[in-house]
Design brief:
Layout lengths: L16 E2 L9 E6 L4 E9 L19 E5 L2 E5 L25 E9 L5 E5 L3 E3 L3 E7 L3 E7 L2 E15 L5 E4 L6 H4 L10 E3 L4 E16 L4 E11 L3 E6 L20
Length: 260
């Protein structure tokens, strides 16, 4: 009795998010945000090739000869083998044909946004009890990288500025601030990002910029949940006290004078 051919295939597992919208992507894609960068993964299926057994493709043919004797004489009789019934096409004895599963190609691209700038005015110092203007710089920018032969673009947009002023206080703003000159203000004027220190000393200001991210696979922008955080280089300043004294000469004339 022959063994019928069986055909098996393995389906590939789709990723969590399928690329759509008429883009050139024919596989699957996934986007994740770990808080410091955007990771974009892609997978594409390549059809496999069929396998086969190299047995005799034809059926087997046999003949039989039987002889016997009877009271009527001797002779030979041919017996045809009965046709074997097989409901599945391809009965070939001990052979099995298997189609190989599709091959999945996976790739990963990581995108890290630019670090913001951080500074202050007056440059490098402040005065106790008066506003010190802290200014951060950042802008919307895009990064492009290859993924499975296609260019994927990530856009980073400044969304929040989280300041730590180094004296135990902080603030979150939606702007990085601006200089007094660009705002048309005199020195030591309060601004949306200024801070007043109450004691003299050396302070280190830190900033974490929160970027909103969008990704484009070629069919339009799609938002990435959450923020991508980018730290700024720290800014150190010396906070001084200002005291008024009546003197007869300037500090240039008398460097050891009061307040010099």
């Amino acid at each position: 009795m022959g063994l019928c051919l069986t055909f098996t295939s393995v389906a590939s597992v789709a990723a969590s998010t399928a690329c759509a919208g008429g883009s050139p992507w024919q596989g699957n894609c996934s986007v994740s945000n770990d808080g410091s960068q955007v990771d974009i993964g892609g997978s594409a299926n390549q059809p496999g090739s069929g396998g086969y057994g190299n047995g005799d493709a034809g059926g087997s043919q046999g003949d039989g000869e039987s002889s016997g004797s009877s009271s009527g004489g001797t002779g030979s009789t041919d017996h045809a083998a009965p046709a074997e019934e097989c409901p599945i096409v391809g009965c070939r004895g001990n052979y099995t044909v298997v189609t190989y599963p599709d091959v999945t190609i996976e790739d990963l691209a990581s995108f890290v946004p630019a670090r913001p700038s951080l500074g202050g005015e007056p440059a490098g110092f402040g005065v106790v009890g008066t506003p010190t203007n802290i200014v951060a710089g950042a802008s919307t920018h895009t990064l492009t990288g290859p993924l499975l032969g296609w260019d994927v673009t990530v856009r980073f947009r400044p969304a929040g500025y989280v300041f730590d002023y180094g004296d135990g206080s902080g603030a979150r703003t939606t702007t990085g601030g601006a200089t007094w000159a660009s705002l048309g203000l005199p020195q030591f004027s309060p601004t949306s990002t200024s801070h007043v220190y109450r004691e003299r000393g050396t302070y280190t200001v830190s900033l974490t910029l929160q970027y909103s991210a969008d990704v484009d696979f070629g069919s339009g922008w799609r938002p990435v949940p959450g923020y991508v955080n980018a730290p700024a280089p720290p800014y150190t300043l010396e906070v001084l006290e200002v005291r008024t004294a009546l003197v007869d000469r300037t500090c240039a004339e008398n460097p050891t004078g009061p307040g010099c």
